[in-house]
From TrEMBL:
PANTHER family on file: L-ASCORBATE-6-PHOSPHATE LACTONASE ULAG-RELATED, UPF0173 METAL-DEPENDENT HYDROLASE MJ1163-RELATED
Stated role: Counteracts the endogenous Pycsar antiviral defense system. Phosphodiesterase that enables metal-dependent hydrolysis of host cyclic nucleotide Pycsar defense signals such as cCMP and cUMP.
Reaction(s) this enzyme catalyzes, per UniProt: 3',5'-cyclic CMP + H2O = CMP + H(+); 3',5'-cyclic UMP + H2O = UMP + H(+)
Entry superkingdom: Bacteria
Protein name as annotated: Metallo-beta-lactamase domain-containing protein
UniProt-listed SUPFAM superfamilies: Metallo-hydrolase/oxidoreductase
Entry keywords, A to Z: Hydrolase
Classification via Pfam families: Lactamase_B_2
UniProt domain Metallo-beta-lactamase: residue ranges: 50-242
Length: 284
């Protein structure tokens, strides 16, 4: 049995986040598993899709392959929490409720159709901001641009608000794209390319007939993620959404092999849950 303990966890992880000094034109990145990431820069700490509960099935088993690197009530450092869509491993009411209590300063940003679910989790409406694709959100030193995603197809409410979003973050002189859940498609590449993405964080768990029949809606696979990242000129590619659940994983070695074969000069990073990376922009 492999050791699936997070690289760093609990108070050790939180202490590292708080102690990490981020220079200009840089961001610190922590991966917490699945698509949960933390970004820090310019005095701002933001979480994307935090899924930090140890969910238990009806038979007493847990679907997670490893414990959360951080418990929600340990996340006292959140300034902003971004949610990409309403699936339980991205919008987890238990995680958000406890994070809201632990980080009373935190604001929660999500697709407009998700606002009611976050409020139902017990978070005050004044702390929740619904956004739609194409809207630029200015949050002090942080700018976030929501980008419409297709989890197979676009999903919109009756007012045309997209239910699935990715975000392009401009923080401390660095531009980071977090795709949320999406397949690759030309309109997405065309929208991202002018935004100058340097770090592209994308799912690679793919889709297939068997999983679709089980209600597991698809994402891009490792090829699509790499080709999308290449098409938008990203400097660093980061695969996500391949490590959490036995029934919906992917071997990241395929991602590595494809880059090695096709694009051997392309930079990439595979994270261990709980691991930190400091990315410094090299763009003029």
């Amino acid at each position: 049995m492999p050791n699936l303990a997070p690289y760093r966890h609990g108070s050790s992880l939180l202490g590292q986040m708080e102690a990490t000094a981020v220079p200009e034109r840089a961001v610190a990145i922590w991966h917490l598993g699945q698509e949960s990431v933390v970004l820090k820069g310019a005095g701002i700490t933001l979480y994307v899709d935090p899924y930090l509960t140890d969910s238990v099935n009806a038979d007493g088993t847990t679907p997670r392959k490893f414990a959360p690197p951080l418990q929600p009530r340990e996340a006292t450092n959140a300034d902003y929490v971004f949610i990409t869509h309403d699936h339980g491993d991205h919008l987890d009411p238990s995680t958000l409720r406890d994070m809201a209590a632990a980080s009373p300063q935190a604001r929660f940003i999500c697709p407009v159709p998700c606002v009611s679910q976050i409020v139902k989790a017990g978070i005050e409406p004044g702390r929740v901001q619904g956004v739609n694709a194409g809207q630029t959100v200015e949050l002090g030193a942080l700018t976030a641009v929501p980008v419409a995603s297709k989890h197979e197809d676009y999903e919109q409410d009756e007012k045309g608000n997209h239910a699935f979003l990715g975000y392009v973050f401009k923080l401390n002189g660095v531009t980071v794209y977090h795709a949320g859940d999406t397949i690759g498609f030309r309109a997405l590449a065309d929208e991202l390319k002018p935004l100058g993405v340097e770090v592209a964080m994308m799912p690679i768990n793919g889709r297939d007939f068997a999983r679709f029949g089980q209600g597991l809606i698809g994402n891009m696979d490792f090829r699509e993620a790499i080709e999308l990242g290449r098409s938008i000129g990203a400097d660093l590619l980061v695969p996500l959404h391949y490590d959490m659940f036995e029934t919906n994983t992917e071997n990241p070695a395929y991602f590595v092999d494809y880059i090695h074969d096709r694009y051997p000069r392309q930079k990439f990073k595979l994270f261990v849950p709980g691991e930190r990376m400091l990315y410094l922009s090299e763009r003029d």
